Amino acid sequence: MKILFEHQHLYYLPQFEPIIQELKRREVEGIYGSLSESVPELEKKLFKKEMERLGVELVGANFEPQRRRIIKDMNFDLIFVGNKTSLGAIKAKNSFSIMIYHGIGLKQSYYTDLTNNMDLVCVESPVRDAQLQDMGFNSVETGLTKLDLLETMDFDNQDQTSRPSVLYAPTFFPSSLQRSIPFLKKMATYKIQIKLHHFFWTEPKYVIIRQELEDVIKNLDHVFLCPFEDYNILKHFPSSDLLVSDFSSTLFEFLMVNKPIVQATYF
Fold it and tell me: What terms describe the molecular function in GO for this protein (predicted)?
């Protein structure tokens, strides 16, 4: 059997990793991972490193259409995807495809990013399961697969202080971060960890905003910016007393640690 975990972006991996770990535990062979060739080199390098950590074979190419052809020719038995973008181009005639959405949140795409090429859709709740069944999709209630990592991963316990710790996780709406930056200096009674959306590291128009943030906080000892390598926000849950976000799926994930959540206004 050959199994592919298809990634449009690196941040799809936390949803897939618990499944990869379980397959490894069962000594399943033939596990592959692949990442779109359209992403920046920074992202590709970290993805390769993570595939090596997990013991997963990497499928790559020189450019994106070539990568998709290679995957289709490999005729995978199972293909896990985080959205529908590449599925039509990589799914072979006998492939069985499984959708595990890369982040729930409150975004419309959660309800539109579906295609009949998906043989099975994993969902987090019986309500969502019933909705998809009514729409004609084959679905199964699995919960949020990403949260299985809470039992196994190493957590961030550094910089522990007596100050309450706030985890701020804005989504990819630029104004959510831009309008928050001026308030950071005023919040010295808190330790603030900022976990930026992936795009603030990989997309030029977002990088400019991140650099503005870095310039403001470089002399603030109460504000910490999570590095790009911390693409999985779960590692910061135990050290955080409060989550602030807008439309992120983290709003739902943080419920598992039973701590307060503030949903900020979407600007």
Answer: CDP-glycerol glycerophosphotransferase activity
